[in-house]
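Readers outside the structure-tokenisation community will struggle with the description of the input data as it stands. For illustration, here is how one protein appears when written out as sequence plus structure tokens:
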Amino acid sequence: MLRNEGAPGSNGGPNGDLYIVVHIKHHSIYVRKDTHVLCDIPVTITQAILGAELEIPMVDGSKEKFRIPEGTQTGSKFRIKQKGFTSINGKSRGDFIFTVIVQTPKRLTKEQRDLIERLAKTMNEQPPIRKKGIFG
């Protein structure tokens, strides 16, 4: 509110107050929590298993390189310090916090499936049983 910055009062009275209302639109990728920025970052299953250097898109349009370690699980959270929003008083800056979401492939080629089954055998897992269709 800005006092006396509104329209003039009736019959020569003082100016009224000016009220400014701001509506913040929700973003499809980022969520703001105080001065922190939160988001989900999808990674491939091989990036999660082997570790990878990711390029994380920041709110300002820049990209930040970040290395996730091998064996990263879905739901793991990572923090990039000082890459969030500046506080109202301008004395501190929040962090960028992202959650890794491991994307499991929905379709595999025969070669990919064979490789995954071989990997499963080395890990003492039972590979999924292949179902035979009507035509073989």
Remarks:
- The radius of gyration is 26 Å.
- The domain at 26-106 is CATH 2.60.260.20 (HSP40/DNAj peptide-binding domain).
